[in-house]
C-alpha cells in the first residue's frame, strides 16, 4: 500500500477525507474533499470530477485504517492514490491547521 507521511504533503496537494460526517464537522484539513467511507462507492463520481486528472489523491481518515482501504480501492481502479500515514491525528499533532466548515479552529474526533 503506497503511503506518505503528513510531513511529505505540500500546500495544494489533493486531499480526500473519508471520515464520517461528525468527524468532519468537528474539524478537517482546509480544502479537503469529504466523502465518508460509508458513502464512498455511491459518491465515487464526485472524486473523479474533483481530483486532478494526472495528479495524486492523498487519502486521509482519523488514524489511517479507513483511508488505507480507500487508497487500495483507488489504486485497483488505476488512480494514483496514497494513504496518509497516521491520518488526522498526526496531521493535528504536527501543527497542521484543523478547521470547521465555518473556518474556525476545529479538533480531531
UniProtKB/TrEMBL annotation:
Superkingdom in the source lineage: Bacteria
Annotated Pfam families: Rhodanese
CDD domains: RHOD (cd00158)
PANTHER family in UniProt: FAD-DEPENDENT OXIDOREDUCTASE (PTHR43031), PYRIDINE NUCLEOTIDE-DISULPHIDE OXIDOREDUCTASE (PTHR43031:SF1)
Protein name: Rhodanese-like domain-containing protein
Matches recorded under SMART domains: RHOD
Naturally occurring in which organism (per UniProt): Streptomyces kebangsaanensis
Domain Rhodanese: 9-100
InterPro entries the record matches: GlpE_sulfurtransferase (IPR050229), Rhodanese-like_dom (IPR001763), Rhodanese-like_dom_sf (IPR036873)
